[in-house]
Amino acid sequence: MSAKPLGLLAQFETAADIMHSAIAVRDAVFKKWDVFTPFPIHGMDDAMALPNSKVGYFTFAGGITGFFTGMTMIWFMNKFDYPLVVGGKPLFTPLFAFPVSYELTILLSAFGTLFGLALLNRLPKLHNPLFASERFKRAMNDKFFVFVETADPKFSETDTRALLEKLGASAIEEIQDTKD
Predict the structure, then answer these.
(1) Which of 10, 111, 132, 149 places its Cα 20 to 30 Å from the Cα of 94?
(2) Contacts of 123 (CB under 8 A, 6+ apart)
(3) Residue 131: how many CA atoms within 13 Å on its side-chain side?
(4) Is 179's pLDDT higher than 70?
(5) What's the predicted TM-score (pTM) here?
(6) How far apart are alpha carbons 146 and 48 in whole angstroms?
(7) E-strand spans in 84-157?
(8) Phi first, then psi: what are they for 7, rounded to 5°?
């Protein structure tokens, strides 16, 4: 098994420290980095300059698909599959198809959201080298972390380590991928 360096993991003690560090790493023009905190921190998305989520597009596509599937299904059933003329009623009207279309809109919107999240987050991800770090286990408890990947075009072992030290990291660890 060969271990290849994956990045630097810097530990910080407070939410204010991690917010300051996120702004500094963003301003240093790093592209491949992330922040791990034990609780949500208001304003972290702005500090990291994260774009709006694209999950809404999947939700919208699922909703539109559900609505038109419901309308088309009721139209086909009433007009061709089993036309039943009763009392001069039309074979199709959107009013009768609305409940089915509404339910399919909700259902396929939910599926679009679920599958969009899984796709955009590259799930399922069964292996993450960060989980091998004993220090990182405290990310869900009481510590704050910044992880800068070696795949980042601006990454330099010495310069990145110096930046993280300057920001006041209490510990810096090199994360290696030991997966074959």
Answers:
(1) 111
(2) 117
(3) 5
(4) no
(5) 0.81
(6) 11
(7) 144-149
(8) 165, -175
